[in-house]
Amino acid sequence: MEFTDSTTTRTAKVVVVIQQKGGAGKSTIAVNTAACAGRSAPMPADDETGAPVVAAGIDVQGTLERWCAGVREQALPFDYVVTKSKTGILPSIIEDPSRRRIIVDTPGFLDVDPDADWGADPLGQSRTADAMREVLEVADLAIVPITPSSMTWSECEFTIERVLKPRSIPYLVVINMHDPAKDKSERQLSKVKAWVDERNYPRVSEPIRRYSIHEHAFENGTLVTEYKMSGTALNAREDFMRVALTMEQML
Ligand SMILES: Nc1ncnc2c1ncn2[C@@H]1O[C@H](COP(=O)(O)OP(=O)(O)OP(=O)(O)O)[C@@H](O)[C@H]1O
Ligand SMILES: [Mg+2]
Fold first, then answer.
1. Residue 245 counted as domain residue
2. How far away, in angstroms, is 95 Cα from ligand 1 center?
3. Does a structural domain hold residue 217?
4. Tens digit of pLDDT for each residue in 89-118?
5. Is the C-alpha dihedral spanning 181, 70, 67, 171 positive or negative?
């Protein structure tokens, strides 16, 4: 068995979905990647043992909790926990030997310290910042969403250069919301791919496409693994399966 740190015997790997900019798809990616990972890791037969995959949310709003609470119990292939930025909850889950993957949804962090020195922690002082630091301390991998619209690019760079690199956390960029109907020639998509590649940021080979089916997943309590099978649903599932697979390759 492989351990990330010789000082602990933990079996769980922690993957944090992080991007300074709000709305790039962190929660959507965290929940659906957990669903894909959970589908390939059988749930324990008894109620005492925890599921191998855990989706965790640290935002104060508890987005993940509201989403997962709406999913039929038999359809949920992972456990979920919401810390609402309380520290001390995640470390005990991570030490639980029945856990293999903890996928953490984080809030956008807008209150960064603009005066922080280059290389200094820009997360600032707040309850959320403390919760972020706690997760980052144990993270084995970060997934950073970026969109074809350049609105998220500088925040992607900031997240990688100022938050992840100084902590030596491996990261993976994933392009989200490529619109196959509006960007038929893939001009926008090529631009964002080139931007990521110029910086030598590792990325998931193909984007997560924009489908309206995802927009209602939160209020409907659906996971990509549960979508009724149609052409779009198959594509949608393939996109998140690819993210889960690439994540596994990096762990
Ligand atoms: N691939 C996609 N196709 C269509 N809609 C998407 C896709 N990804 C995300 N969305 C939608 O975009 C909105 C923002 O996504 P999401 O809530 O996952 O972002 P976030 O980064 O978690 O935002 P926040 O920083 O506010 O927590 C949501 O309404 C979601 O349903
Ligand atoms: Mg979110």
1. yes
2. 30
3. yes
4. 999 899 999 999 999 999 987 677 777 777
5. negative
